[in-house]
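Let us work through a complete example step by step.
Step 1: write down the sequence.
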Amino acid sequence: MYELLFWKYLDEIYLNNQEVYEALVEKQEVEGLAILQIEVIVNRINSVFSDWERVDENSWKNPKGKGAFQVITTPQSVKIDCYGTEGKTMNKLVDVMEEFKCPLYDPQVPERYDEMSE
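Step 2: predict the structure and record it as tokens.
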């Protein structure tokens, strides 16, 4: 499994990304993060992956090849667990979240890919 996590900071706020990640995975509220339009985001993911089979409310699998992903949300975050998913598919998910001004935090590295990164 490869994990992707997305959140949006409020203006003028920037926190320790690893600590934010750990709190969000535990489904804790983090002061300084924006509340996301979760339903709109999930609908957008669904439309971008309309040719994928929607297994349940939060899971999709590729009917024409390998790969599946599950979307887990809190009011402040979107976590996407990818199973055997190709890089170009993960990039599409990252692009969708960029539309909502939510840059990727990659806990495997660990690094957040936004304008504050060096």
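Step 3: interpret the result. The mean pLDDT is 95.
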